[in-house]
Design brief:
The complex is a heterodimer of chains A (231) and B (390). By secondary structure, chain A is mainly α. Chain A contains 9 helices and 2 strands; from the N terminus they run E-H-H-H-H-H-H-H-H-E-H. Chain A starts with 9 loop residues before the first strand and ends with a helix. The longest helix of chain B has 26 residues. The N and C termini of chain B lie far apart (104 Å). Classes of the chains: A mainly alpha (231), B alpha/beta (390).
């Protein structure tokens, strides 16, 4: 029996630094809170209808949460952009922006391995694969649109200078009604993104066994020695 | 020419108004322009010294509801601005002259008062075919351009002239176009279908008083009347913050006067003074009468979805499709795709799964005999408690 034992050496790789992890979870929390509160703002439920108006302010609080987390998610993201220039190689901006031919090759490789699965064994990639990177890059742009439409809607009811920086978007979209429409539609992008994102974490964890899920908690991934050498 | 134009006070006295009437008018004008009472002296001074400006009021593709609204201004004396105080030299609807005389009247006013007259425009311009709206052999576009060239100020009355209104609603068969897109002059947009009478008189008063345009927002609307949403000044707003909404017409909540947000009230996306100024002599406004705002002063409000639905329809996805319809469909398709992907992955990569399981090891419990030896043994297919350490 002992002869059959095959030793497979793994190494731990510190992939997600603490600021990246904090960013990720703050972002996740913000997205969940914003989706729930945003959906309620768009479609308020008759939950406390037995009470009189003077007894409650729940819808006001829902809106307050939405506005608060809109600032949190925005400045969290601004920090992430900064970290994209000072963080480790897995956090760097160029991981998200395809600008080299080798990245397009990686992208195609990931599509072949994980999506259309013409290839069973893919090359091991530490950090985001290129398809994930591109997806996040698209997400950032939707996030930008969501920020612009959200603060544009907020600008008319805020005394702060900050939302007013986005007031120009209202005539561009053809009035508040359309800004609200698009803001609502973009929300669904985040819902779909979250579903796919969580599924793919499970997928990679199951097929690759590198600790994908736990890596965003502890920061460590586990790579085979062979994979590290063959890179 | 200038000597012939009387001041506003002279014009009023000529009509038989006393000085007391004149001062009352000044007081109302001060309020209409949104000034403090301390500004009254300046108003009186302005109306005593300033020449009465001639006015040309043009009608194109519209329903005359703006004129109807204007003449129902709360105070008859304020409405008199247009009929007595201003010199309404040309307006198709109220003109005594007809035919060539009327045309001459307009042309003379424009020619004799270059740079002095106020141009008020009601209605949109059909650019699709100049025959759609032709008066006296001239197209609407031509008349507008001629009249606008020498105007001291141009005001677009109502949603037709400001944004195109119902004529410009999809598919816009006449290519109805708001006037600001046709003339190269700053235009004061006064949207609304119709605009509130007090807002209209307020804007005219502002121009008379200060001799310049009021401060405009990014869409060319006077900030003093269009800077706040109907929603923010609505008396039902506390119900919104408390989360108390009308769920169906004539339900208990409707009788209690709860917020009409879920019934499609467009107050939250509409900029107007309705909930402050109100209508018909400060009597009421749509929401107070139990009906949601339809957003008639917003650009393209006819195309902003059903009036009785909170979330508008999205073009290209069918009449009933909202952002939620699209979103739920996308999420369902995604979930289906994921299920399919998970299934095919397990089939397609079953050899990989087998191989991974073969690599798995089972760590035997540490006992006294074995704690110094290698304790691992392979177990094919076993994956419980498998630590993938070497």
């Amino acid at each position: 029996m002992a002869a059959e034992i095959q030793t497979i050496p793994y190494r731990r790789v510190y992939v997600w630094e603490l600021p990246v992890r904090i960013y990720h979870w703050l972002n996740a929390l913000s997205i969940v809170v914003l989706i729930i509160t945003g959906y309620l703002i768009g479609n308020p439920q008759a939950i406390f209808n037995a009470n009189e108006a003077y007894q409650q302010y729940w819808f006001g609080w829902v809106r307050f949460l939405h506005f608060t987390f809109s600032y949190i998610i925005l400045f969290n993201f601004v920090f992430r952009i900064y970290w994209g220039f000072v963080g480790n190689r897995y956090a760097r901006w160029d991981r998200f922006v395809p600008h080299r031919w080798s990245q397009l090759r990686d992208l195609w490789e990931t599509i072949k391995t994980d999506i259309i699965q013409t290839k069973v064994h893919g090359r091991s990639i530490i950090g985001h694969n290129m398809l994930a990177g591109v997806s996040y890059f698209v997400l950032f742009h939707i996030f930008l649109l969501q920020t612009i439409t959200g603060f544009a809607l907020y600008s008319s009811m805020s005394n702060s200078f900050f939302p007013r920086l986005f007031a120009w978007a209202v005539p561009l979209f053809g009035g508040d009604a359309w800004v609200r429409q698009w803001h609502h539609l973009f929300m669904w992008f985040f819902v779909v993104f979250t579903i796919v994102h969580v599924y793919l974490v499970f997928y990679h964890d199951y097929f690759e066994g590198k600790g994908t899920t736990s890596s965003i908690i502890g920061g460590w991934k586990f790579e085979r020695d062979d994979d590290i050498k063959n890179r | 020419m200038e000597k012939n134009i009387p001041t506003i006070r002279q014009a009023m006295e000529a009509k038989g108004y006393s000085r007391r009437d004149f001062l009352l008018f000044c007081g109302l004008a001060t309020a209409a322009a949104g000034l403090e009472l301390s500004g009254l002296a300046q108003v009186v001074q302005a109306f005593e010294t300033k020449a009465r400006p001639p006015v040309v009021w043009l009608h194109f593709q519209e329903c005359t509801c703006c004129s109807e609204s204007f003449i129902r201004s709360t105070h008859p004396i304020v409405a008199d601005i247009i009929f007595d105080t201003l010199s309404l030299d040309y307006t198709e609807t109220l003109l005594a002259a007809a035919g060539a005389q009327a045309e001459k009247c307009r042309d003379d006013t424009i020619k004799n008062n270059q740079g002095k007259y106020i141009l008020l425009v009601e209605g949109s311009i059909p650019l699709g075919n100049e025959g759609y709206c032709m008066i006296g052999g001239k197209s609407a576009e031509q008349i507008l351009k001629e009249a606008a060239a020498g105007a001291a100020a141009v005001i677009a009355w109502g949603s037709c002239a400001s944004t195109g209104c119902v004529q410009a609603a999809s598919p816009n068969p006449t290519t109805a176009t708001p006037i600001k897109k046709i003339i190269n002059k700053p235009v004061i947009n006064v949207p609304g279908c119709p605009p509130i009478a007090e807002v209209m008189t307020g804007i005219v008063t502002h121009i008379l008083l200060f001799g310049k345009m009021p401060e405009l927002d990014s869409q060319g609307r006077p900030k003093e009347f269009y800077s706040r949403r109907v929603h923010d000044t609505c008396y039902r707003r506390p119900y919104y913050d408390a989360g108390l909404f009308v769920e169906a017409w004539d339900d208990e909540a409707a009788r209690k006067g709860y917020c009409l947000y879920k019934m499609g009230c467009k107050g939250p996306t509409t900029y107007n003074a309705c909930s402050v100024t109100k209508w018909n002599g400060n009597l009421s406004y749509p929401i107070q009468s139990g009906h949601g705002c339809i957003g008639c002063s917003e650009a393209g409000f006819w195309d902003n979805g059903p009036f009785y639905q909170h979330l508008g329809a999205f073009p290209g996805f069918g009449i009933e499709s909202t952002a939620d319809t699209i979103g739920v469909t996308a999420a369902a398709v995604t979930a289906g795709g994921i299920a399919l992907h998970a299934l095919t992955s397990n089939l397609r990569k079953r050899k990989l799964i087998e191989k991974n399981k073969e690599e798995s090891v089972v760590v035997a419990p540490i006992s006294e005999e074995t704690d110094k030896k290698e304790v691992v043994e392979t177990e094919k297919g076993g994956d419980e408690d498998g630590k993938s350490s070497s």
